[in-house]
Amino acid sequence: MKNLTGAITLVLISVSATSCSYFAPAQPPDNPQPETVTPSLPTAPIVGASGGTQTPTIETFPPPTTVPAGTKVRLYGVNTTSEFNLMLKNSFENQFKGTEVETNISTYDQAILALIAGNIDIAAVWRPLTTAEKNQGLIAINISQDQIAIIVGKDNPYSQGLTHAQVLQIFQSEITDWSQLGGATGTIKVINRSSLKNIYDAFRELVLGGSYVPNAPNITDMLGDDDTAMLEALNTDGISYAPYSAVANQETVRILAIDGLMPQAVNYHYQRPLYYVYKSPANPAVKAFIGYALQQKNP
């Protein structure tokens, strides 16, 4: 009888423990890792340091004091980053003798795929990384800002600025004559950039709110990827758009103020970030070049 009582007691204890475990409230899940990691020395917004099976790596990019001769950085970027990349390439190579920065122009997808494959070191792009790209171990650092400038030919008689509303109306063919803006009578010739240019998508997003430039008698669509042809097409009656970095020192065009602001203004409307994307962990060449680029951003 004593043995039976002991067995019943053990069963009750087991059932009680199991019940407590079964009905115990679920523990809250661990907090997810943030999608943005900010390094120090210097501070730089890093986008895409988590996700998928990759382990986030917090890296710093101090300005390099020396870079070994023979160091090579392979930097590919979309068309509208070429001016900025070339400026950094020349100054980096001049400061650190014996180094080489190989630059090339590619589409966004080409640059990202080449980076994932290990064929380049840095991809220069305008948009943030997708989740799938982050899951490949890619990290994007905000290196700079570039602006979209609204431009006319230097001999265009229109000498005023524009409001954002007027820009929309011009590129939607709702304002078609310079006299509607307070200028001399004459048709406004709108030069729309080729869809092959990355600036085309940026303009649609930042300026037109996603809308397309319509087909209209006063609108000319550039068919190729030739910046010189676009600048020549402006003549004395045309208007178009371009990356500010590409036309800031261009003597054949004049940049128009938008709502009283020039592209250099901090609160200028049409601007976007430039990201340098690398695959974590950064190799020494990448750390040196990005550290140098950040130093130029925050001297």
TrEMBL record:
Keywords: Signal
Transmembrane segments: none
Signal is among the record's keywords: yes
Residue ranges occupied by any PBP domain in the UniProt entry: 69-294
InterPro entries attached to this UniProt entry: PBP_domain (IPR024370), Phosphate_ABC_transporter (IPR050811)
Signal peptide: 1-26
Protein name: Phosphate ABC transporter substrate-binding protein
Source species: Planktothricoides sp. SpSt-374
